[in-house]
Structure formats: structure tokens, C-alpha cells
């Protein structure tokens, strides 16, 4: 949306300029008409100078010149440059063509799009995932209740009214899901297809379409013939594939996949035990309660008659029956406890199936638990493996014990802070555009903390951000040494760093501070030597930008080099003024005295640097003024030559001037 607004704004600028140009062309064509009158030279020359002075207001209008660069909408979101809020108003009935969707550069974040009065569903949207979650709840409801109602028919009679309401709410959700799936987009040749006819045809070709149709078969109408029987709702179990789709998608988007897998594993185990418990009760009912020790027992005696009457009247029987069946199913599948042996072929076959299912469930639990434990400890194992390799290397090369302790301490820090050892291996799976956007989102605010980069154009910041390198420091590590050539600038992300000058601690740098940005610009007369030594107090994390990378970027932005150098000079000037305010006699030198020549070398270098910096500032200021004067002179000359060639007399020149100024005023108001 922002990119479209920028393009529209550029078109407005060009249209305004073109309108002014057309007005001037009309006047020129009128002046080109034949005229026999002779015009003296002096009045025209006098009028040319006045005409040029008045026409300068037109040439200074910024809106007559088109923009020189396009803004990246992603960068503009994080840019601190002023801009207008762009709002895209979409009317109903507007057709959105799938060919105009740029999947590579725009996120697919709208679940519902209007196209000729229809609804299109974006399969990558979070709201579509929520819809799958609602459908999955309906699938789980059917898998838990249908078998329960088939097994415990007598105990469920009192709850049929509420169950009917839930049944048909779920059926309505399943019908809506067919409608949604027929309008769900799909990827073809790397592009999202949202055309109604194509999505409908694509959905009808899938196997899931037939499963969805089977799951909504109106078998409940058989209630009017055979009576209410939950068996007729078994077709609803064909909707399982939609739950599997939700399970696959949630594994991709969730931040805790191991926890989600554990929850799903527990659910599946309880669901299997639930089905086995219901099947056990069905087998017991078909064989007769208490017909053998293995089946569901039967109550005997007078107290049993009273208890049965109480259970029937209160409806509490299903709870006791179900809990007993669930208990027996769980101890049978886990093969624990002393259970009576089956005596009939039917019960033997059923127990055998239960034992095999129990073995499979137990293997499933153990296998998934091992996978989750391995996944959670994978990073720790990798760190231990790398540490053992480094220990062997240090032992083979007789590395001093103090250095070995530093290395081991560093690996402990990696584990405690959960730092990743293979960021590059992770990023290599991402496309370059996606990788750049990810780095930009994470590191852009860090780069904008540097004063000289605050107001840079977004495209320049983008090229700089993707070149930032993350570096780590152990306690006591030297980041830079006084007097060495500065080829990198640093931005502190984590930790503390201490600044020393001639053995004296000057200050302490923390997260957000930066240093070395002046040296990598290689400004003439300023120098690129380090003026202080900096070392890490503890474990520190810094972003590094090298001089080579900066120079490569500035080759594509030559106009930005002058701006950065000007900002750097201003930063140095402010820093010097701050130092003078803190220590007036330490760095200031009296211009009328030469006593400062007897000072030490560091003071002399500081004075020379101040003089060179002032000269550089004056040189840049005079250079800008020279360019401005040349542009004004050139503009005046162009206007004079235009008047000489196209204006036949002073009256025509005056009319041309009035038309030009009026056109410029109208354009400015627009």
C-alpha cells in the first residue's frame, strides 16, 4: 500500500511539472507566429534581466522535480524519515487479479478478499488456522462422543437433547468448511491462485473433497425410520483429515512445537484408551454381564436392586460403568496388574487385539518421548561436542591453562544465554529477500542509534544493515588499541566495555553505545587512528561494520557520502565543544599565543586535528555555496537565452512571464 502511494505521489509531481511545461509551450507557439514589427535591442535586454529574476521563483519549486529514488515499503515502516500515512480504500466488487500479487515481496496476510462478490480464503493467514482449529474441535467432539453414545446407550438417554444441538452445530461447521475449502487459494508456479473457478476445480480434484462429502452425509434422516441410533453418525469420522491438516500447520507456526507434540501425544493415548474402554463394554454387553470373570461384572442381591434403581433414576450409572471400563482398558493396554484370563474365543481375540494395541501405544509413547528429549537437549549436546573437540585440540597443542579456562567459560556462557552457534546455517534456508527483511527488522534500530546514520535514506540503511556482523567478546578481550588504524565501527548490543586513555579509565560503554564510525568514513584531515583503548569487562556482544563494506555501499550512493561526512564533522565538533565545557583548559588553545607548541605530542595532535576539521568544514561550506551560485547563474542564463530566442518584443516577454508565474502558482496550490 505504501509503495503504491509513493508511485502515485511521484506521478502527481510529474503531472504538475508537465502541466507547467504545456502552458509554457502554448505561449512559445503563440510567440512563434510571424510578426513584422521591428524591436529595438535595448528594451529586450533590459527586460531579460527582470524576467530572469522573477522566473527564479518558478525554478526553486521543489515539486517540479521528480523523486530520485523509490522507497521500500518494508524499510519505510522502520524509517524515522517523515512521511504521510497511506490508506488504501477498497470498494466492494473490485476484482483482485492473482497475477498482480507479488508473492516474493509482499506478505500474504489477508484471509478474506472480495472478488466479484465472492469470498477468497488465504491459506497462509492466521485466521484460516483458527478456522481449522474450530473444525478440529468438531472432529474431536465426534471422535469422543459417537463411540461413547453407541456403547452406553441407556445412560445417554437423558442427554440426547443437548447432544442433538451440539451435533447439528458441528454439522453446520462441516458444511461451512466445504464452502471455505472451495474458495481457499493454492500455490501454483510460486504464486497464490485465488480465482474462484480455479480454486473450486482444484478442491474438487482432491481426495479431501470426497472425504468432506462423506462426513456430511445426511444419514440422520434414518432416525425417522429406524429410530435414534448414534451408529448413523459414524460417517462424521471421515473428517479426520482436516484435523491432520491443522496438526501439520500448527507445528510450523507454533513457537513451542515440543510442548504441542507432547499435548497431542497425551490426547491420542487417552483417545485410544477411551475407544478400547467403549469396545470392552460393548463386548461385555453382547456376551452378558458377569458371564465370565473377564467381562463387565453384574451386581447381585437386594442391595443391588436398589442401587440399580437409583442409578437408572439419577443417570449416574454411566459414570461408574465408564470409569470401570476405562480403568480396565488402561491396565490391559499397559500390561500391568493381575487380570482374569479370557475363556471364550471372542474374548481371547479381543484381549489379543488390546494387548497388541497396548504394545504399539507404549512404543509410540516411548519413541515420541525420546524424540522430544533429544530435540530439547540437542543444543546442549552440540555445545558439548564442540567443547570436547576444542579440549582435545588445546591439549594436543599445549595451550596454557588460563586460556583453556577462558574457552570453557565461553561455552558455559553460550549455554546459559542460549546463543545459537549456527545462525548462518539457519539463514541459508531463507530466500535472500526474506533474509534481508529479517536482519533489517532485528538490526535496523541498532544501526539508527548511530548519529551519522539517523536520517539516511531507507535503501542505504538496508544495504548497511545486511552487512552488519555479530561478534562476541570474552572478559578482558581487547576490542581496539590506541594508535591502531580503525577499519571497523562497533555498536554495543549486550555487555559492558571500558574505555582507557594512557592507562586512565575514561568511560564505560553499554548497550546502545557505538564507536569508530568516524574512522571508517576516512575523512580527509580527520584521521583514522584509534584515540583510546577499549576492552570488554564481561561477555559482550557487538555489531561490526567494516570500512570496506561501507565504501562498497557508498559507491552506489555517491550523494550520501557528502552528507555522512558533514554529519561526522558536526558530531566531532559537538564532541569537542563538550570536552571544552568539561575541561576548558585541557584542549583549548589561545589563538594569540604559541605556548601550546610546547605541549606533549597528544595535545599537539589534538590541536592539529581541530584545525584540520575546521578547514574541512569551511571547505565543504564554500563548496556548497559555489554549487548553489553556479546553479543560479546557469538558471538565469537559460532563461535569458530562452527569452532571446522566443520573445519577439518586450510585450511578449511580459505576457510570457505572467503566464509562467500564474501557472507555477496554480501548480503550487495544487
UniProtKB/TrEMBL annotation:
Pfam families: cNMP_binding, Ion_trans. Keywords: Ion channel, Ion transport, Ligand-gated ion channel, Membrane, Transmembrane, Transmembrane helix, Transport. Its main location: membrane. One of its GO terms (molecular function) is intracellularly cGMP-activated cation channel activity. It is found in: Membrane. PROSITE patterns: CNMP_BINDING_1, CNMP_BINDING_2, CNMP_BINDING_3. SUPFAM superfamilies: cAMP-binding domain-like, Voltage-gated potassium channels. InterPro entries: CNG_cation_channel, cNMP-bd_CS, cNMP-bd_dom, cNMP-bd_dom_sf, Ion_trans_dom, RmlC-like_jellyroll. One of its GO terms (cellular component) is plasma membrane. It is a multi-pass membrane protein. The keyword Ion transport applies. PANTHER family: CYCLIC NUCLEOTIDE-GATED CATION CHANNEL SUBUNIT A (PTHR45638). This is Cyclic nucleotide-gated cation channel alpha-3-like. It comes from Paramuricea clavata (Red gorgonian).
Amino acid at each position: 500500500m505504501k509503495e503504491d502511494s509513493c508511485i502515485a505521489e511521484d506521478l502527481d509531481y510529474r503531472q504538475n511539472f508537465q502541466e507547467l511545461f504545456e502552458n509554457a509551450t502554448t505561449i512559445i507557439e503563440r510567440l512563434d507566429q510571424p510578426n513584422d514589427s521591428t524591436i529595438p535591442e535595448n528594451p529586450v535586454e533590459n527586460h531579460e534581466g527582470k524576467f530572469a529574476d522573477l522566473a527564479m521563483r518558478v525554478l526553486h519549486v521543489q515539486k517540479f522535480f521528480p523523486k530520485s529514488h523509490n522507497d521500500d515499503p518494508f524499510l519505510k515502516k522502520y524509517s524515522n524519515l517523515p512521511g504521510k500515512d497511506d490508506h488504501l480504500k477498497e470498494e466492494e466488487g473490485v476484482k483482485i487479479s492473482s497475477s498482480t500479487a507479488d508473492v516474493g515481496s509482499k506478505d500474504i496476510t489477508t484471509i478474506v478478499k472480495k472478488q466479484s462478490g465472492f469470498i477468497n480464503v488465504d491459506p497462509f493467514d492466521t485466521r484460516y488456522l483458527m478456522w481449522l482449529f474450530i473444525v478440529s474441535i468438531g472432529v474431536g467432539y465426534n471422535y469422543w462422543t459417537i463411540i461413547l453414545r453407541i456403547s452406553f446407550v441407556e445412560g445417554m438417554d437423558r442427554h440426547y437433547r443437548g447432544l442433538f444441538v451440539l451435533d447439528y452445530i458441528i454439522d453446520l461447521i462441516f458444511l461451512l468448511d466445504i464452502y471455505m475449502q472451495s474458495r481457499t487459494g493454492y500455490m501454483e508456479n510460486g504464486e497464490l491462485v485465488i480465482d474462484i473457478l480455479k480454486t473450486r476445480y482444484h478442491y474438487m480434484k482432491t481426495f479431501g473433497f470426497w472425504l468432506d462429502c462423506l462426513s456430511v452425509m445426511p444419514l440422520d434422516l434414518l432416525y425417522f425410520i429406524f429410530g435414534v441410533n448414534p451408529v448413523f453418525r459414524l460417517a462424521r469420522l471421515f473428517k479426520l483429515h482436516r484435523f491432520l491438516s491443522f496438526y501439520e500447520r500448527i507445528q510450523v507456526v507454533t513457537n513451542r512445537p515440543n510442548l504441542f507434540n507432547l499435548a497431542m501425544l497425551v490426547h491420542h493415548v487417552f483417545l485410544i484408551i477411551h475407544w478400547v474402554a467403549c469396545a470392552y463394554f460393548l463386548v461385555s454387553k453382547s456376551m452378558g454381564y458377569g458371564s465370565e470373570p473377564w467381562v463387565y461384572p453384574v451386581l447381585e442381591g437386594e442391595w443391588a436392586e436398589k442401587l440399580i434403581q437409583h442409578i437408572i433414576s439419577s443417570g449416574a450409572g454411566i459414570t461408574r460403568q465408564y470409569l470401570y471400563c476405562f480403568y480396565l482398558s488402561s491396565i490391559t493396554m499397559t500390561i500391568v496388574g493381575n487380570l482374569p484370563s479370557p475363556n471364550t474365543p471372542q474374548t481371547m481375540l479381543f484381549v489379543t487385539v488390546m494387548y497388541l494395541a497396548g504394545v504399539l501405544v507404549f512404543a509410540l509413547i516411548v519413541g515420541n518421548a525420546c524424540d522430544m528429549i533429544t530435540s530439547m537437549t540437542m543444543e546442549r549436546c552440540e555445545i558439548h561436542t564442540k567443547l570436547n573437540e576444542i579440549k582435545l585440540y588445546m591439549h594436543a597443542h599445549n595451550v596454557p591453562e588460563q586460556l583453556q579456562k577462558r574457552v570453557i567459560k565461553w561455552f558455559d556462557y553460550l549455554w546459559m544465554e542460549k546463543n545459537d552457534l549456527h545462525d548462518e546455517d539457519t539463514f541459508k534456508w531463507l530466500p535472500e529477500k526474506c533474509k534481508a527483511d529479517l536482519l533489517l527488522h532485528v538490526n535496523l534500530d541498532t544501526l539508527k542509534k548511530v548519529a551519522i546514520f539517523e536520517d539516511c535514506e531507507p535503501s542505504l540503511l538496508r544495504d548497511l544493515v545486511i552487512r552488519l556482523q555479530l561478534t562476541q567478546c570474552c572478559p578482558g578481550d581487547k576490542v581496539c588499541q590506541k594508535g591502531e588504524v580503525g577499519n571497523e565501527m562497533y555498536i554495543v548490543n549486550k555487555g559492558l566495555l571500558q574505555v582507557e586513555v594512557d592507562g586512565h579509565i575514561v568511560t564505560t560503554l553499554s548497550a546502545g553505545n557505538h564507536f569508530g564510525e568516524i574512522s571508517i568514513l576516512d575523512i580527509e584531515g580527520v584521521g583514522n587512528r584509534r584515540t583510546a583503548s577499549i576492552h570488554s569487562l564481561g561477555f559482550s556482544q557487538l555489531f561490526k561494520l567494516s570500512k570496506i563494506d561501507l565504501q562498497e555501499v557508498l559507491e552506489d550512493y555517491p550523494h550520501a557520502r557528502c552528507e555522512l561526512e558533514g554529519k561526522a564533522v558536526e558530531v566531532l565538533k559537538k564532541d569537542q565543544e563538550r570536552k571544552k565545557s568539561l575541561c576548558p583548559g585541557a584542549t583549548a588553545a589561545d589563538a594569540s599565543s604559541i605556548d601550546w607548541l610546547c605541549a606533549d605530542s597528544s595535545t599537539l595532535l589534538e590541536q592539529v586535528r581541530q584545525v584540520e576539521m575546521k578547514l574541512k568544514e569551511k571547505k565543504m561550506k564554500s563548496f556548497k555555496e559555489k554549487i548553489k551560485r553556479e546553479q543560479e547563474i546557469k538558471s538565469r542564463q537559460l532563461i535569458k537565452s530562452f527569452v532571446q530566442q522566443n520573445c519577439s518584443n518586450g510585450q511578449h516577454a511580459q505576457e510570457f512571464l505572467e503566464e509562467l508565474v500564474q501557472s507555477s502558482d496554480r501548480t503550487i496550490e495544487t
